[in-house]
Description:
There is one protein chain. A five-stranded mixed β-sheet has the order 2-1-3-4-5. By secondary structure, the chain is an alpha/beta fold. Helix 4 links the parallel strand 3 and strand 4 (127-132). It has helices at 28-44, 70-73, 80-92, 114-123, 134-140, 152-158, 169-181, and strands at residues 52-56, 62-67, 105-110, 127-132, 162-164. The model has no long low-confidence stretch (mean pLDDT 95). The longest helix has 17 residues, at 28-44.
Amino acid sequence: MPLPAQLHITLPIWVLELDLSGRDFSTDAAKVAFAIELSKHNVERQSGGPFGAAVFSAQHQLIAVGVNRVVRQSCSLAHAETMAFMLAQQRLQRFRLNEDGGPITLATSAQPCCQCYGATVWAGIDRLLIGARAEDVMALTAFDEGPLPTDWVGELNQRGIEVVRDVLREAACAVLKAYGELGGPNY
């Protein structure tokens, strides 16, 4: 049997049906609200776990989105943040998203896990906006977010990444709670 030489990972089809006309993403709250909206859709449509992420340009333009697709795609790397990174990198045709000098923002419904923390550094993110905290994720669901450096925010700051936490935290936690109450379905 030959080794696989290609990978095909997709977002759910409902992402293509999102109405983005007239959306204003100029504030941090608007960006995180959109990431939370993605996470909620993912749970309600049973297409993945309760996580959403979006990458924005310096001009507040939406570049790419991601939702958790781990179980549906049989890929432990298919987290919302990494999906958004990969799609943004494809769209911009560069692996360092901030290569052109403009600040790139990642908005997440929840704090990146240990995997997505590292990917944030290498993807070229300048601003990280976070809804729920890792402790919220672990208290409200069965997810293990993995180990991070004790001063993970300081480590990101040292690499030029501004971190803004607790943006719409309650709304983000509501999605996590709903998912957890469903027993953490494997979709």
